[in-house]
From TrEMBL:
Keyword annotations from UniProtKB, A to Z: Cell membrane, Membrane, Protein transport, Translocation, Transmembrane, Transmembrane helix, Transport
Single GO MF annotation: protein transmembrane transporter activity
Organism: Aequorivita vitellina
Location within or outside the cell: Cell membrane; Membrane
Gene3D superfamilies: Preprotein translocase secy subunit (1.20.5.1030)
Protein name as catalogued: Protein translocase subunit SecE
């Protein structure tokens, strides 16, 4: 386990290319925007299906 942690640390320190601060901020904004859009899409689909299921059960009761 210690060897794994040591090798992982060396990999992160020597072989990973980290983005610049500006690039990290830009990518964070992109991820946030797409997360909000996906959340709105899921909310919309959930609302439509909820109304359809409600209409179906109202129709069955009639």
């Amino acid at each position: 386990m210690v060897n794994y942690i040591t090798e992982s640390y060396k990999e992160l320190k020597n072989h990973v290319t980290w983005p610049t601060w500006a690039e990290a901020q830009k990518l964070t904004v992109i991820v946030a925007v797409f997360s909000v859009l996906l959340a709105l899409a899921v909310w919309g689909v959930d609302t439509v299906f909820s109304k359809l299921v409600g209409m179906y059960f109202d129709w069955i009761k009639s």
